[in-house]
Design a protein that fits this description.
CATH class: Alpha Beta
CATH superfamily: paralog of FGE (formylglycine-generating enzyme)
Radius of gyration: 18 Å
CATH topology: paralog of FGE (formylglycine-generating enzyme)
Number of strands: 14
Order of helices and strands: EEEEEEEHHEHEEEEHEE
């Protein structure tokens, strides 16, 4: 069980997400004529909830307050942007799940790059990660463990920043924060050896690409090449992409975030996403891992 207690109780009002556009996309859309104010981060949450928690298996998670980020996209050579608002705080792993933590729960280690159990587990699939999470929930008699959504992941990775990288706009500083193709020696490395982002998340870029709950969906935020579905809706609230059971293959269209040791430094940024197709065709790529999330009740 979570190792924390609340010092005081409070009632938090949140916006309840509605269902839009069939089964492909969930969330509230605010039209261009509506107004909705939200800070980049809801700092009040930090005085209510513990800033960090630790699971029974030793996985450390960091509190991610509610807030917002801006996601940019291109239509007809014009750059547009859309506010994405996360209304509820949640917890996210301080590090990617390691080989030691995986093996303790699952009894085996699927990773290509063995030899140091503090390296992130890799060669996992969305389905095997769901099994890991299910076992975690059963072990601790809860149902709050899960993968982050794509939007939650980017919100946490950006950590309130508005630039291409969470440390600013300069690629020159990347080596301080990221394992990538030019500095990794073509393999993963123990978690936590690079500097963290402003929320205290290590290896959020590089080392291993991270699975999220969502599938790749061309309509996820904006545009499918033909229609801008939400042209009059510049604000999205708690978006959730296409579900796992939508009819796509089990792994090929899972969303990967953050890049890995395999990606060049020029390919890595907080806004890049990639379908798993590229790596799951090679089951021994050693590229794909994940970071545990937990809901706040």
């Amino acid at each position: 069980m979570f190792k924390f207690t609340f010092k005081r109780m409070t009632v938090v009002l949140v916006i309840v997400a509605g269902l839009i556009y069939g089964n492909s996309f969930h969330g509230i859309v605010v039209s261009g004529n509506d107004s909705l104010s939200s800070p980049i981060f809801d700092q009040e949450v930090k005085s209510i909830l513990p800033s960090e928690i630790t699971t029974d298996t030793g996985i450390e998670l960091v509190l991610i307050p509610a807030g917002e980020f801006t996601n940019s996209y291109i239509i007809n050579k014009l750059t547009k942007s859309r506010r994405v608002i996360i209304t509820k705080p949640f917890y996210l792993g301080k590090y990617p799940v390691t080989q030691r933590q995986w093996e303790e729960m699952m009894g085996s280690n699927p990773s290509k790059f063995k030899g140091n159990s503090d390296c992130p587990v890799e060669n996992v699939t969305w389905a095997t990660v769901q099994e890991f999470i299910q076992r975690m929930n059963v072990k601790e008699s809860t149902n709050r463990y899960r993968l982050p959504t794509d939007a939650e992941w980017e919100h946490a990775a950006r950590a309130g920043t508005r630039t291409k990288y969470f440390w600013g706009g300069e690629i020159a500083y990347m080596d301080k924060y990221v394992w990538h193709r030019e500095n990794s020696g073509a393999r993963t490395h123990p978690v936590g050896m690079k500097l963290a982002n402003p929320l205290g998340l290590y290896d959020i870029l590089g080392n291993v690409s991270e699975l999220v709950q969502d599938k790749i969906d061309s309509r996820y935020y904006f545009y499918d090449g033909m229609i801008d579905y939400y042209n009059d809706a510049p604000v999205l609230i708690d978006p959730i992409g296409t579900s796992y059971t939508s009819g796509y293959g089990p792994d090929l269209f899972n969303t990967l975030r953050g890049g890995s040791w395999f990606w060049s430094s020029a390919e890595i940024s907080v806004d890049k996403r990639l379908p798993g197709l590229i790596f799951f065709l090679d089951k021994e790529s050693g590229n794909v891992g994940f970071r545990l999330a937990a809901s706040v009740d």
